[in-house]
Specification:
By secondary structure, the chain is mainly α. It folds into 2 domains: 2-49; 52-290, Orthogonal Bundle (MetI-like fold). 77% of the residues lie in helices and 0% in strands.
Length: 291
């Protein structure tokens, strides 16, 4: 009798597992089909407009003369300074919270707040940037103000992922390092960070990819589309690709839809290039750690 009941439970679990497996396959299939259709549509509309003239020209009211030169260079400037600001701050905060901070109410409160900040809409950071960085600190609508705003946006993600990567390092690594007479910083530097670094870099890659594609906070900070110069310093005014693409989609001339699609292709190539470089560095560092 008992074996019959167990057999029925096993059959029901097996059926449920099969149904769930089919659901996952259908979900993946729908996602791939949707993404493929979107990419095909973008490439079909954007490739006819994608040429050197499009890359080397400034925005214009005439579609045949319009380009993304200002937005392209502005995106590179903002992404570079965002990485330089957010990566060391995020990793340092994660190291402190995971290895140095005492386990008390204040640390728990900070951890909860960091988790909550990761879910705040990006436009809130844009309003924070324009209120504090642009107006209060008098940075103006500059690349530096935009980079700091995006850094604040992705810092919670980098901190959370970095903490998870650090905590995933086995405790035996710490005990072995302390047993050999290493200090806490030596243990963090030589025993904990090397195996945790690939995970930290993966989280940073995802966070920077999100920052580059954000339009809402950049609209609040930059609020410019028709620039006829490229930035030459962190205090220059700027525009970025998401703003330029959004602006083209709002114009009545259908030709600007093709320009927007071409801008999306350039943004995708830029993101894939940056991610490929970061993944190459991560894999190289991971192999070095293993060896």
């Amino acid at each position: 009798m008992t074996s019959g009941v167990n057999l029925k439970k096993f059959d029901s679990r097996k059926s449920f597992g099969s149904i769930f497996f089919v659901f996952l396959l259908v979900s993946i299939f729908v996602s791939i089909i949707s993404l493929s259709a979107l990419l095909i549509d973008i490439f079909a509309k954007g490739l006819p407009w994608l040429d050197l003239q499009f890359i080397n020209s400034f925005p214009s009211r005439f579609p045949e003369q319009a380009g993304i030169k200002a937005a392209f260079y502005g995106t590179i400037w903002v992404a570079t300074f965002t990485a330089l600001i957010s990566f060391p701050l995020g990793v340092s905060a994660a190291i402190y919270l995971e290895e140095y901070a005492p386990d008390n109410l204040l640390t728990k409160l900070i951890t909860i707040n960091i988790t909550n900040l990761s879910g705040i809409p990006s436009i809130v950071y844009g309003l924070l940037g324009i209120g504090i960085l642009v107006e209060l600190l008098s940075l103006g609508r500059s690349i530096l103000a935009g980079a700091i705003t995006l850094s604040l946006l992705i810092l919670p993600v980098i901190i959370i992922v970095s903490r998870e990567s650090i905590s995933a390092v086995p405790k035996s690594y710490r005990f072995a390092s302390y047993a050999l007479g290493a200090t806490r910083w030596q243990t963090v530097r030589h025993a904990i960070l090397p195996p945790a670094f690939p995970g930290i870099l993966t989280g940073t890659i995802l966070a920077l990819s999100r920052a580059i594609g954000e339009a809402a906070p950049m609209v609040a900070i930059a609020a410019l589309v028709y620039l006829t110069f490229t930035p030459s310093s962190p205090l220059d005014r700027f525009t970025v690709l998401p703003i330029q693409i959004y602006s083209w989609t709002t114009l009545p001339d259908p030709s600007f839809r093709g320009l927007a699609a071409a801008g999306i292709i350039v943004l995708l190539v830029l993101l894939l290039t940056m991610n490929s470089i970061a993944i190459f560095i991560r894999n190289k560092y991971q192999r070095r750690v293993v060896e």
